Amino acid sequence: QFVLTQPPSVSGAPGQRVTISCTGSSSNIGAGFDVHWYQQLPGTAPRLLIYRNNNRPSGVPDRFSGSKSGTSASLAITGLQAEDEADYYCQSYDSSLSALWVFGGGTKLTVL
Amino acid sequence: EVQLVQSGAEVKKPGESLKISCKGSGYSFASSWIGWVRQKPGKGLEWMGIIYPGDSDSIYSPSFQGQVTISADKSISTAYLQWSSLKASDTAMYYCARLQHDSYGVMSGVSYFDFWGQGTLVTVSS
Questions:
Q1: Distance between CA atoms of residues A74 and B12, nearest Å
Q2: In degrees, to the nearest 5, what angle opens at C-alpha A104 toward C-alphas A101 and A109?
Q3: What is the pLDDT of residues A21-69, one digit of tens each?
Q4: Smallest Cα–Cα separation from A63: which of A4, A19, A105, A28?
Q5: Could you read off the pLDDT of B1-30 as tens digits, one per residue?
Q6: A43 exposed, middle or buried (CB, 10 Å; 0-12, 13-18, 19+)?
Q7: Would you call A103 and B63 a contact, using CB atoms and an 8 Å cutoff?
Q8: Radius of gyration of chain A, Cα coordinates, nearest whole angstrom
Q9: B47 contact residues in A (CB cutoff 8 A)
């Protein structure tokens, strides 16, 4: 069971916009802790996609954006491309005793 | 260029010991926290623990405390993850990743994993 909840899968056609949600609680996202997003292409290691809620590392296209509100966060991808097909994970910090650095269960994005 | 290079895939039997490594380059290895993350086949990411190579201070996830040992040798810019007695349930891909944080410290609630190793696949089977 993952502390942060993500939908198992989302899909969209090329050129469309999709969003991936990440729902937490008062001990993580709701406590004001930042949310970060990772992209994991098939057979590769995760890579940082969005950090501190809405910042993109160098090299990440501006088609990717993040937002946070209350106990949830979202990753939006516009102008969907075939190369975006991957697993996406959110991550935050948790102040409870379960774990400190927590991930969502991951969302598989399929480009139709 | 920041790089984390992990040791190669391992195939072990239950009860055997194992130590895998993660060598950092392109940044001040001793001054940055390094974390280990487990990914079981077809599953999500799980944080295992972190270590500060400068003084070997470490923090473990309760789920992994006592199950693994995280260590580091700053003289050779390498972090390690080890098991004393492997189980079949330890079969997974293991990633090391640098933990980036702000000036308030690693537990300020803003930290994230900015660079990742390529992963080490550990297979435990009789």
A1: 40
A2: 140
A3: 999 999 999 999 999 999 999 999 999 999 999 999 999 999 999 999 9
A4: A19
A5: 999 999 999 999 999 999 999 999 999 999
A6: exposed
A7: no
A8: 13
A9: 99-103
